[in-house]
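Progress note, sequence design subtask.
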């Protein structure tokens, strides 16, 4: 019984960690109390970033009639090094996936103040999406602020009368930190899953 109780408590704790990480990706760094629990390694750049965070701003979304859930999924990766200083240029690559065949999907980048557009299509249409084959959208930007800025990409598609959308964001100052947090949560969940799969020993 005690083993089952410990597993339940560990699962609840990991879910709380995952929620905290998701909140951090939308707004700011976790609190010092969060760090004190040992959920992530404290790096010097994290402390610096905490001092220069800008005000959180939500990028405009697609119409509310769209379904958030659907076959579309979007993620963003920086191609090369993240922007380290003002004037540094960086390349963002958005991977648009679909779990079912789609004739087309529209995308739109939302570029905030503090980030300059250099090149790459800001809006467009992707055609012939197939499961397991991502479409890549690339854009070149320039850092123009020391504050954290969030670059978003939104994608939308339709099957018949059903319309749906997906979105992703990149943080100019926090992304490396958030990626570490996400990996920490993922590792914890995987460890819990392995523990739950171990055969139970009855005395």
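Output:
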């Amino acid at each position: 019984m005690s083993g089952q109780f410990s597993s339940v408590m560990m699962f609840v704790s990991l879910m709380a960690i995952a929620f905290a990480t998701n909140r951090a990706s939308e707004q700011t760094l976790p609190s010092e109390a969060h760090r004190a629990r040992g959920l992530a390694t404290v790096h010097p750049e994290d402390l610096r970033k905490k001092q220069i965070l800008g005000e959180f701003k939500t990028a405009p979304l697609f119409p509310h009639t769209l379904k958030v859930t659907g076959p579309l999924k979007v993620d963003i990766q920086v191609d090369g090094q993240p922007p380290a200083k003002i004037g540094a240029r960086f390349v963002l690559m958005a991977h648009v996936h679909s779990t079912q065949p789609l004739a087309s999907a529209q995308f739109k980048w939302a570029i905030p103040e503090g980030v300059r557009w250099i090149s790459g299509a800001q809006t467009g249409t992707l055609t012939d999406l197939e499961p397991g084959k991502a479409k890549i959208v690339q854009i070149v930007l320039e850092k123009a602020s020391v504050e954290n800025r969030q670059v978003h990409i939104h994608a939308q598609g339709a099957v018949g009368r059903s319309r749906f959308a997906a979105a992703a964001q990149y943080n100019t100052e926090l992304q490396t930190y958030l990626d570490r947090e996400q990996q920490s949560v993922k590792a914890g969940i995987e460890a819990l899953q392995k523990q739950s799969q171990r055969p139970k020993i009855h005395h």
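Residues 1-8, 23-41, 52-66 have pLDDT under 50 and may be disordered. Work on this subtask will continue into the next period as scheduled.
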